[in-house]
Specification:
The structure holds 2 protein chains of 2 kinds.
Chain A (H helix, E strand, L loop, with lengths): L33 H10 L5 E2 L2 H4 L16 E3 L4 H14 L3 E4 L16 E4 L6 E5 L4 E5 L4 H8 L4 E2 L12 H7 L6 H4 L2 H4 E7 L5 E5 L10 H5 L8 E8 L1 E2 L3 E9 L2 H13 L6 E6 H11 L9 E9 L1 H17 L4 E4 L3 H12 L1 H8 L2 E4 L9 H15 L2 E7 L4 E8 L6 H18 L15 H7 L2 H14 L14 H6 L5 E2 L2 E2 L8
Parallel strand pairs in A: 2-4, 3-4
Antiparallel strand pairs in A: 1-2, 5-6, 6-10, 7-11, 8-9, 8-10, 12-14, 12-15, 13-14, 13-17, 16-18, 17-18, 19-20
Helix pairs in contact in A: 1-3, 9-11, 9-14, 10-12, 10-13, 14-15
Chain B lengths: L2 H9 L4 E4 L14 E4 L6 E5 L4 E5 L4 H10 L2 E2 L13 H7 L6 H4 L2 H4 E7 L5 E5 L11 H5 L8 E8 L1 E2 L3 E8 L2 H12 L5 E7 L2 E8 L1 H11 L2 E3 L1 H12 L12 E5 L12 E5 L4 E5 L4 H10 L3 E6 L13 H14 L15
Parallel strand pairs in B: 1-2
Antiparallel strand pairs in B: 3-4, 4-8, 5-9, 6-7, 6-8, 10-12, 10-13, 11-12, 11-15, 14-16, 14-17, 15-16
The chains are: A alpha+beta, B alpha+beta.
């Protein structure tokens, strides 16, 4: 989990793995359909259908390596026509398909299905067209997020959403997850920066959602599709909007002796009329973990550190930094430093960007949570997490996209110690329940995947889940695309046994209880 | 009317025409079904300026909402049109329309964070929430934007707000159409604080907004003639609400949504261009089929926005596979065809 892109390399032998999925799913064909595999082999170039167990291993999980399954086969198509043919073949055979980009996801959204084909889109990796005047790039689904910005850079443009895995993650995966990044408070999420996608349905039809204009007739299926976690169709091509690269950026690093004060400072910055291009918080556990590795010069006595960035023209940045600095001082910051140059600004950020890998260095394993809460409840949440550390006997360090309320508690554990993984999961589940009850959500940007199916039962009523199932069926009537992900079945929620009251009503009243 | 009363009407399974302020009666397919007046379901539920989010009942007038936000130095940056002044938040979401700032700040669909709706079985469903980042479940609240009320009765909307810009300025340039298009696209690719553009009658207007220094510098960089602030503010509001003289009279009003770089279509009739070239208004009575084909070839679509012969459908018809999905989605939320029949598509 420490390094999603390298998740498979750093996995320890003998690590305990969750076995939540049934080995065989009665909804799908029991036996390996030899006829289907032969058909797929005929569709694909030589060597592009993997069935050998050793070669399947690298695909058994995504960035959340605690959840693993071997697929029936891995298909590596090279173009859209092959994707269409694969989907049609699987559709005819009634065999599930799990799409996968770079496999950097953190919610087991592309964990294979044991009776299904894993569809790797990594070979669809060409930038088809970049128009600097229209400020759009048309790219295949497997193009890496950062590769788009690199291609646009000579024109003074870039692709704004920058998830921390951007060096490896693909644009198709970003669409599936509605990926964000540290700059999304000002520049938006994937849904705000994608104009059009080409999608292959499970039946092999091609849909174009959105357009190179700013809207399209009919329902906004583009918005519905973004963040749909591979349940509705397979994206083959994406048109992204490119933004002008800001001329300059400057960052304030402010120390606080109290997390509540830091949280209130975030609110005060917003109330004063600023939308910083980045607004991040790290607690003491994180600064202590990262400082030995990055030497960012963090104030290790501070209980919390805020990074507050402005970008734009030099004059604009100077004006905004002065305004934000005054607000932070009034909010009780115990120390303030403003980056004097680009080297220093990047050093300020180095620790934030190294937070996950550093957690991996100080602890054998860590579990990253992704709840979002209203910013004003940050103090409540962090206080509650302190108490949970004692309850579960585990440490938790916290990084926080403070500007948009998205919290990433990192629970530190050792999977080789019996019982720690179970305690970690219970700890995480409690954080997510609290996120919902504080008025937030169980996932801000990592997706539900397989990981948070149970937590979905906390956030939605059975009627709402039924609507989600209806949407799924509108695109995929047989439920072949990424089954048992993102939307839990009503039975799963009932079987969780948590008969709590949600928004004043008993959940799942239509199901019998045993 | 209470939610219970709405539910009773829905459960009768008689087609309903959902209406509040009626500011957009002219828009979309003709009104059909029994009138369901939701205008009493109004008022701000919660407003948290430091969370940048407001939640209000659907029939809250945009004017009322705008005043509450302005008191705290905030606004709806996508500038939903009020037209004749009676527009509501729920109507704005249902219509999905955005004003002059759309190309810079985003559209209605970009700002909606959550929605509470009554579905066609009378069930209250809540999607999204009050936080900026939320990827739990399908994004149904954004799907409501532009659905013209065909998927459910919108009860409550949570929407992102932004701080009002510290400084604004509007510049005017004398430019023919082709040069104006080229200029708008060129400037949009540079880090300039442009928040709106409009071209009509050989004149290009450019609105700048942001930090004092950013606006001042951009005025220096771009040149042109500075429009007095009061006149500029009136201009952009009039444009948003279609009270600008271009929109007067009975000639059919077409809206062409095109890639911003599309070459001028050179159609008979007056043209007004917004959104850096991406929204082009046309006054005239062209052949709808030919117009739509030209818009399609240019990479966009054409809508008969107001007036004209509306019998054959006002929106561009959908390709067959998309139409199938539309019908299935409609059936999920409104299985008995109660909500706003025919308003979005003739058979929906």
């Amino acid at each position: 989990m420490a390094d999603p892109a390298g998740a498979h390399e750093d996995r320890k032998p003998g690590v305990k793995v969750r076995e939540h999925t049934p080995d065989r799913d009665p909804d799908f064909p029991e036996a390996a359909p030899e006829a289907l595999l032969a058909e797929l082999r005929a569709i694909l170039p030589p060597g592009s259908l993997i069935t050998d167990e050793e070669l399947l291993r690298p695909y058994e999980c995504d960035g959340l390596s605690a959840y693993r399954r071997l697929p029936l086969a891995v298909a590596l198509p090279e173009d859209e026509a092959q994707v269409v043919a694969i989907l049609r073949a699987c559709h005819r055979a009634g065999v599930p398909i799990v799409p996968r980009g770079a496999g950097t996801g953190l919610s087991a959204g592309s964990m294979p299905h044991p009776q299904g084909v894993l569809l790797s889109l990594a070979k669809l990796n060409r930038i088809l067209h970049l128009d600097p005047v229209a400020r759009v790039a048309v790219v295949q689904t497997g193009v890496r997020n950062l590769a788009i910005s690199e291609a646009a850079l000579p024109h003074g443009l870039y692709y704004a959403p920058d998830p921390s895995s951007q060096i490896a993650c693909t644009i198709g995966g970003n669409v599936a997850e509605n990926a964000g990044g540290v700059h999304c408070l000002k520049y938006g999420l994937t849904v705000h920066n994608v104009l059009r996608i080409r999608v292959v349905t499970i039946e092999g039809d091609i849909l174009e959602l959105g357009s190179h204009a700013l809207d399209a007739p009919g329902y906004d299926l583009l918005a519905l599709f973004i963040g749909s976690e591979g349940l509705l169709g397979v994206v083959t091509e994406v048109t992204v909007r490119l933004s002008p690269k800001p001329q300059t950026a400057q960052c304030i690093m402010a120390s606080f002796d109290d997390v509540r004060k830091a949280g209130e400072a975030v609110a005060a910055v917003i109330a004063a009329g600023s939308i910083p291009s980045g607004l991040e918080m790290m607690d003491q556990g994180v600064t202590a973990a990262v400082e030995p590795f990055v030497n960012a010069g963090y104030d290790l006595d501070a209980v919390a550190i805020l990074l507050c960035e402005s970008d734009g023209t030099p004059q604009e940045v100077a004006e905004e930094i002065a305004r934000m600095r005054a607000v932070l001082e009034r909010s009780g910051a115990t120390g303030i430093r403003v980056s004097r140059n680009e080297v220093e600004r990047i050093r300020f950020w180095a620790g934030r960007k190294a937070a996950f890998p550093s957690a991996g260095r100080i602890s054998p394993d860590y579990y990253c949570m992704d709840g979002t809460i209203p910013r004003k409840r940050l103090g409540d949440m962090l206080t509650a997490i302190r108490a949970m550390e004692k309850t579960y006997g585990l440490r938790c360090i916290n990084v926080f996209h403070a500007g948009d309320g998205n919290l990433h508690p990192l629970i530190l554990y050792d999977a080789n110690v019996p019982g720690q993984l179970e305690r970690t999961e219970a700890f995480g589940a409690e954080i997510l329940r609290l996120s919902v009850s504080l008025g937030g959500t169980i996932t801000g940007e990592h997706g539900v995947g397989f990981e948070k199916l149970n937590a979905m039962c906390e956030q939605f009523t059975s009627d709402e889940l039924k609507a989600f199932h209806g949407i799924k069926r509108a695109f995929d009537p047989q439920g072949l695309l990424n089954p048992i992900k993102a939307i839990p079945s009503l039975h799963r929620c009932a079987e969780m046994g948590r008969m709590h009251v949600h928004r004043g009503e008993l959940k799942f009243p239509e199901l019998e209880r045993l | 009317m209470s939610i219970e009363a709405f539910r009773e009407r829905i459960l009768k399974r008689t087609p309903l025409c959902i209406r509040s302020g009626g500011s957009k009666d002219f828009y979309g397919g003709s009104l059909a079904g029994e009138l369901l007046d939701v205008s009493a379901h109004r008022g701000i539920v919660t407003y948290e300026p430091t969370e940048l989010v407001v939640t209000a009942r659907a029939a809250t007038p945009l004017a009322e909402l705008g005043s509450a936000l302005a008191e705290r130095g905030q606004w709806l940056a996508f500038e939903p049109p009020s037209f004749q002044g009676a527009a509501t938040l729920g109507g704005a979401l249902a219509a999905g329309l955005s004003g002059p700032g759309r190309a810079s700040y985003g559209a209605m669909r970009d700002f909606v964070l959550g929605a509470k709706v009554l579905d066609g079985e009378g069930r209250v469903l809540t999607f999204g929430g009050q936080v900026m980042k939320n990827v739990a479940g399908f994004d149904v609240s954004r799907l409501m934007a532009g659905s013209l009320g065909t998927l459910g009765l919108i009860l409550e909307v949570s929407i992102k707000v932004l701080p009002l810009p510290v400084a604004q300025a509007t510049l005017r340039f004398q430019l023919p159409l082709d040069q104006a298009l080229e200029t708008m696209n060129h400037w949009a690719g540079r880090p300039l604080p442009i928040t709106a553009t409009a071209w009509e009658g050989q004149r290009l207007l450019v609105r700048l907004a942001g930090a004092e220094a950013a606006v001042r510098d951009a005025c220096g960089t771009l040149g042109g003639e500075r429009v007095p602030d009061g006149e500029a503010a009136d201009y952009w509001v009039a444009l948003r609400d279609q009270r600008h003289p271009f929109f007067a009279g009975d000639a059919p009003l077409w809206r062409l949504s095109l890639p911003s770089t599309a070459t001028p279509l050179d159609l008979p009739g007056d043209t007004l261009i917004e959104w850096g070239g991406a929204q082009r208004w046309l006054r005239g009575d062209p052949d709808p089929v030919a117009l739509r084909e030209r818009a399609r070839r240019a990479g966009g679509h054409a809508t008969l926005f107001r007036g004209g012969d509306r019998a054959t459908g006002v929106f561009t018809p959908l390709p067959a596979p998309l139409a199938v999905i539309h019908r299935r989605l409609k059936a999920v939320f409104d299985p008995h065809g109660v909500f706003n029949p025919g308003r979005l598509l003739p058979d929906l």
